[in-house]
Amino acid sequence: MADDIIADLQPALRIDHVTKTFPGVVALDDVDLTVRAGEVHGIVGENGAGKSTLMAVASGALVPEAGSVSVGGQPLRAGSTHDAQELGVAIVLQEPALLPDLTVAENMYLGQPPTARPPIGQLRAWSRDRLCEWSDDVGIDPDTRIEELEPEQRFIVDIVRALARRPAVLVLDEPTEHLAGEDVERLFAAVRERVRDGGAVVYISHRIREVKQIADRISVLRDGCHRGTFDAATLSERDIVDLIVGRRLDAVFPDKPALVDDVAPVLSVTSARGRGFEDLTFTVRPGEIVGFAGIEGNGQRDALRALAGLGHRSGSVEVDGTPVRRKSSAVAYLTGDRHREGVFPGLTVRETIGLRNLDKFSTLGVVEPRREREFARTAVAELAVKTPTIETPIESLSGGNQQKALLAGVLRRDPRVLLIDEPTQGVDVGAKSEIYDLLRDSARDRGMGVVVVSSDGIELAGLCDRILIFSRGHVVEQLAGDEVTEARITGAALTATTHRDKADRRAGAAVRWFAGDTAPIAMVGLAVLALGLWTSLSSAFYLTTPSIAGLLALVAVLGFVALGQTVALTIGAVDLSVGPLMGFVVVVESFFLTAESMPLDRVLGWVLLFGVPLLVGFVNWALVDVVKMNAIVATLITFIALQALSLVLRPQPGGLFDSRITDALTFTLGPIPVAFLALLVVAGGLQFWLRRSRTGIALRSVGSQPDAARLNGLSAPRVRLVGFLLCSLLAGLAALFLLAQVGSGDPTSGIDYTLTSISAAVIGGASIFGGRGSFIGTVAAAFLVTQAIGAVTFLGLDAAWSSYLPGAMTLIAVAVYSRTRHLARTH
C-alpha cells in the first residue's frame, strides 16, 4: 500500500531521454531517471560513466542535445542554473562551485535563490547560524575568504549553503572525499533529516559502502547508459561492483615475467608525504611495473608528481640505495596531460625527442645538428614511431605516435625509474598494445622500475605486477600476483573506508593580513607619508597651499579614471581604452562647452559627456562577450580608434572651454579642490556598493571565477556589461575634470592615464586576475602615484623618474600581494 502511494506521487526529479555529447564522446545516451520525494537515490558508476554529466544537466549547468528535465512536475529550462535554483535544485559538486575571492558569507549568500537571500546587513550573523547548525565547533569564520580555507572546510561550506536552502532536490556529487569521519556522520544525519522533511537527495559516489549505507534505491550508469535502478537492500557490495564493471578485457598485454624477490629494489620510498597523500611506503624491484590505482582525486596522481620532483614532499626516496632529494636524472617522468604538458606545438619530432636529451648531443651548450639527427632517428626506429620524417611537426602525428615520441625521449635518457601518468590516454587500441610492449620490454631489458598511474582498471590489471590502491591520500590495499584483476582493483577502490584526518595548514595571521584588503591601504598610506616627508625636507614649497591644491586636483583626475580601472580589474578585465576615451571626451566637449556655444549645443555637450563613455563601454563589452575577444586586445582596438578620432577632430589643440565651467570645476575650499572631495564621496559610495550590494558581489564573483559564478546562477555577460559601462562612465567623469585643467580640446591629453590608472588600481589592492578591488585603496594609490610623479621635480631628479617610480611601485605591489595571497591560499 505504501509503495502504491509513493508511485502516485509527483517525482521530485524526472530526467527523460537525455543525450549529451562532447567532441568524440557520447557522455549520456538516452538516459531516463526518476527520483522520488522522500528518498535518497544513489548513483554509481566508473569514471566517465556519465554520473556528473547527468547531474550537470539536471542542475541547468549543461544543455543536452536531446531530452528534458522536470523538477516537481515543472519543466526546467535547459542550461539555466538560475531556473534550477528557483525550482529548488541544489548541487554540491566534486569541486565546490565557490568563488575563491569572496568570503564564506558572500558565497553562502550567492548559494541561495534570489528570493530567499537574507538582507546583506544580516549576512554575517545568518551565515554563522547556518554553520553552527552543522557543528558548534565548525571553526569557520564567515569573513574568511574561500581561498584561505582548507579543502575540507570548503566542502563543508558548500554543503551547508546547499542545506540552508531546504532544497526540493539536493544533489551530492562525491561529497565525502575531503571530509573527516565525524563530518561524514554529520552529512548523513543532515541527509536523513532532509528526506524526512520530504526532500529528495541524489547521492553520487564511488564509495559503495557509503551508498549502501545511505541510499534507498541505486541507479547504475555505465558508458553513458542507464543500466538499471535497484532497491539498495537487495544488492550486496559485490553485486554493485559487478554491475558497475560489466565489461570484458579489450586490449592485448604482454606476458608478465617472474620477478626475483630477494633482489635489491631500484626504488625505495619510506614515509613520504605531500599535498594530497601521506605515509607512502613501497618499493619497486628491477623490471617490475607497479600501478597506482584509486578513484580520481585520492592522491595517486599527486604522489607520482611528488616522486618526480614536481611537488613538495617529505620522507625518504632512494634510487639504487642513493637518496634522491628533489629531482634526479635517474628518475624520469611522463605526464598524463599530453596536450598541455607533454607536446609543444610547433616543435618537430626531432626537437621533441631531443628536448630531454640536449646534454647528449651538445658541447658547451651548443647543439651539434648531426648528432641530434642521429639521436632522433635511432629513437624513432627503436620505438617504431610512425612519422614521415624526423622534421615532421609533432602535433601532426596521431595520438599514439605522439605518445611514443614522448616516451622515446624519456627512455633515451636510460633512467633507472620511469614514472608515467596515463600511458595510453587518447590513443587507439593498436597503439596501446605497442606502448604496453615498450614499457614491459624496457623494464625487463634495462632492469628499470616503472610506476604507472591510470584511471583504467583493465590497463592496470593487464600491465602491472603489483597495484597500490589509494583512498583519501592513503594506500589502503596492495594487490599482487593473481589478485591483480580489474574486479579486485575496482572493488578495493570502491569499498575503501578510510577517512581524511582534519588538518590545520592555514597561513599565519601576518600573511593573512598582508593578503587582505586592509594591507594595501596601510602600505600605501605609509609610502605617502614617507615620500611626503622626504620631499618636504627637500623643498619648502611642497607643503604650501598652492602646491597641495595642485596636487589634489591632479589626484582627482587620476582617481576617477583609476576607480573605473578598478571596476574593470574586478570583473577580470583590463581596460586600455580609458586614457584615449578621456582625451576623446575632452575633444568632443571642446565643440560644445565653449563661451560661444549656443544653449542647445551646451545641452548636447552635457548629454555627450555621459553618452560617449557609455557607448564606448558598450562597444568594449560587445567585443569581449559577443565577439569573444580577449579584453586586452578588445580595449587596445578601442584605444587606437579613439585616439585616431581625437586626432581627426582636433589635429592641434583648440576650442577654449567656457571659463565659467572651468572655474566651477576647479573651485577649492582652502587648499582642497571640490573635485577631490567629489572623488572621496564617489569612492566611498562605490566601496559600500561593492561590499554591500548584490551587484557588487556579482561583479567580484564573475571576476573571481566566471564558471563558478554561472553555477551560482549569475549571468557573467550581464555582469561584465555593468562593469564595462561603469568603467567608461568613471573615465568620462575624469575627463570632465581634465578638461578644466587643460583648458582646450587637446587630443593627446588622456593618453598617459591608461598606464597610471592601472598602476593606481593595482597598487591600491586590485588583483590583475580579477575578483578583488578596493576603491578606497585606489584613491590612496592615486594620491601616491601623483605624489611620486610630482616629487621628481621637487627632488631635482631626472624626468625619467616620473616613469620609474610608478613602475617600481606597481611591480612591488604585484609581487607583495601575489606572494602573500599565494601563501594565504590553501590547496
UniProtKB/TrEMBL annotation:
List the record's Gene Ontology CC terms alphabetically.
plasma membrane
- In this record, what's one Pfam family? ABC_tran
Recorded coiled-coil stretches: none
Q: Which GO terms describe its molecular function?
A: ATP binding; ATP hydrolysis activity; transmembrane transporter activity
The membrane-spanning stretches of this chain are 510-534, 540-561, 604-624, 631-649, 669-690, 719-739, 751-769, 776-795, 801-818
What's the protein's topology in the membrane?
Multi-pass membrane protein
Per the database record, which ranges form the ABC transporter domain? 13-248, 258-497
The UniProt entry, under SUPFAM superfamilies, shows:
P-loop containing nucleoside triphosphate hydrolases
Task: Indicate what this protein is called per its UniProt record.
Answer: ABC transporter domain-containing protein
